[in-house]
Amino acid sequence: MGGISRYAKFEYFFNEILKQKIEAKVFDDILLHFAQIVKEHLMRCEAAEGLDQLRIHTKLAKWLIVSGGDQTELLEVFVIRGIETYFDGGIFGSPDNKTEILEREMAKRNIMVPALFIGDSKYDYKVAKADGIDFAFVSNWTEVENFSDFVVKENINTFESLRSLK
Nearest to residue 118, comparing CAs of 46, 56, 51? Predict the structure, then answer.
């Protein structure tokens, strides 16, 4: 399921699917290896098409990242790639989950409704809806099978990419 922390996914895999107790050291080693692979890919992937133009178009809006990815890893990659400055509201990720992040940042008034959550998963939609935040689904980013059925059923505004979000 997209948008959920790798920590939760690996715990679920070992506990619920394999039904195995795993030593903390082995679990940490697996997470470290996975993090190295993710970081390598994040350093090589293209930034979202239309990011620069959308930031210019929304210069008065505060931008935040609320990700299932590891927060420390995201901060490091965004700084190296020179895109951390777009996110003047902060870059947040696991180990906190998206619900915790949104609720904390709303309580601190770092996020103020009306707000827009741009996401690519059913989980993103669920979290945004629960906190009364408008949601836009980006189809080029998603791993949701038959996403068109989902967005029609939930009546979600859908965009192919950031470039088409206006």
Answer: 51
